[in-house]
TrEMBL record:
<keyword id="KW-0963">Cytoplasm</keyword>
<keyword id="KW-0009">Actin-binding</keyword>
<keyword id="KW-0206">Cytoskeleton</keyword>
<dbReference type="Pfam" id="PF00235">
    <property type="entry name" value="Profilin"/>
</dbReference>
<comment type="function">
    <text>Binds to actin and affects the structure of the cytoskeleton. At high concentrations, profilin prevents the polymerization of actin, whereas it enhances it at low concentrations.</text>
</comment>
<dbReference type="GO" id="GO:0003785">
    <property type="term" value="F:actin monomer binding"/>
</dbReference>
<dbReference type="GO" id="GO:0005856">
    <property type="term" value="C:cytoskeleton"/>
</dbReference>
<dbReference type="InterPro" id="IPR048278">
    <property type="entry name" value="PFN"/>
</dbReference>
<dbReference type="InterPro" id="IPR005455">
    <property type="entry name" value="PFN_euk"/>
</dbReference>
<dbReference type="GO" id="GO:0005938">
    <property type="term" value="C:cell cortex"/>
</dbReference>
<comment type="similarity">
    <text>Belongs to the profilin family.</text>
</comment>
<dbReference type="InterPro" id="IPR027310">
    <property type="entry name" value="Profilin_CS"/>
</dbReference>
<comment type="subunit">
    <text>Occurs in many kinds of cells as a complex with monomeric actin in a 1:1 ratio.</text>
</comment>
<dbReference type="InterPro" id="IPR036140">
    <property type="entry name" value="PFN_sf"/>
</dbReference>
<protein>
    <recommendedName>
        <fullName>Profilin</fullName>
    </recommendedName>
</protein>
Length: 126
């Protein structure tokens, strides 16, 4: 399956994720939802967010020009919230999954979709 298919079918296609991207650990966008733009600065910050958890917790996560307050942050996952909307970022061996959901979808509906795909990719060596 192509990387774009993971975004289109597994994430956005679930009906729980509004827009998503897959970033490589070494930089670069592997796949992204149409019209979703993560600036070079945002991509760099996302890559660093898992290593600088104290900064991520204090400053939040910026995606496509919007700030999400960090609810939880660890070496694998970052969860953020902005009003009724939220984000889920999950680090695999070679990539970072970035997903946003919009209300009325809630974190307990969106999080398993992203975490499940991350588990699959980790199992496949990615």
């Amino acid at each position: 399956m192509s990387w774009q298919a993971y975004v289109d079918n597994n994430l956005v296609g679930s009906g729980k994720i509004h827009r998503a991207a897959i970033l490589g650990h070494k930089g670069g966008v592997w796949a992204i939802s149409p019209g979703y733009t993560l600036s070079a600065e945002e991509q760099k910050a996302i890559l660093a967010a898992f290593d600088k958890q104290d900064v991520t917790q204090a400053k939040g996560v910026h995606l496509a020009g919007q700030k999400f307050f960090t609810l939880q942050c660890n070496t694998r996952s970052i969860y953020g919230k902005k009003a009724a909307d939220g984000c889920v970022l999950v680090k695999t061996k070679q990539a970072i999954l970035v997903a946003e959901y919009v209300g009325p979808i809630q974190a307990p509906e969106a999080t398993p979709v992203v975490e499940g795909l991350a588990d699959y990719l980790i199992g496949a060596g990615y």
